[in-house]
């Protein structure tokens, strides 16, 4: 398929156009959902996150059990800083198809949401550095006290 070749060649603009043509030609819901998911991925690469979000939502409406649609919806929402929506979509993707990349995206969305809400526990991130016993770390500990 020419659209896939364009995507692999990283010609995302051409791939987006070709997936749009595939969407127009699609005769069933599964083919439409597939074209929408692929076009959503192109739009993510093109940094058109709102367009990607719309495509992923449309694909999800056609196929509610489509893990790729949920995953792409989560990625687009995360880029749009809609972290609660991103986490919900990524949780659905993880439930449907547990994969490391989905789990990593989910973790990132949850951390970004917590940080945006002022709830992120930075001390947990840096805790290992404070346990190393280095002189600089010891000095930093003393300054905190």
UniProtKB/TrEMBL annotation:
UniProt keywords (A-Z) are: Repeat, TPR repeat
Molecular function via GO:
molecular adaptor activity
* PROSITE patterns membership: TPR
Is ATP-binding given among the entry's keywords?
Answer: no
Gene3D superfamilies hit by this protein: Tetratricopeptide repeat domain (1.25.40.10)
Official protein name in the record: Uncharacterized protein
Q: Which GO terms describe its cellular component?
A: membrane; TRC complex
Which InterPro entries did the record assign? Answer: SGT, TPR-like_helical_dom_sf, TPR_rpt
Q: Does the keyword Acyltransferase apply?
A: no
Q: TPR repeat positions in this chain? A: 67-100
Which Gene Ontology terms describe the biological processes this protein takes part in?
post-translational protein targeting to endoplasmic reticulum membrane
Q: Organism source for this protein?
A: Effrenium voratum
Where does the source fall among the domains of life? Answer: Eukaryota
């Amino acid at each position: 398929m020419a659209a896939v070749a364009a995507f692999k060649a990283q010609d995302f603009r051409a791939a987006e156009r070709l997936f749009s043509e595939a969407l127009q030609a699609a005769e069933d819901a599964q083919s439409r959902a597939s074209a929408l998911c692929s076009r959503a991925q192109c739009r993510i690469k093109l940094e058109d996150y709102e367009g990607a979000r719309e495509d992923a939502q449309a694909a999800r409406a056609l196929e509610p059990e489509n893990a790729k649609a949920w995953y792409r919806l989560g990625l687009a929402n995360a880029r749009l800083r809609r972290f609660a929506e991103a986490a919900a979509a990524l949780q659905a993707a993880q439930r449907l198809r547990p994969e490391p990349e989905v789990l990593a995206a989910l973790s990132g969305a949850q951390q970004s949401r917590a940080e945006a809400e002022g709830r992120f526990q930075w001390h947990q991130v840096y805790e290992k550095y404070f346990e190393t016993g280095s002189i600089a770390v010891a000095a930093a500990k003393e300054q905190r006290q």
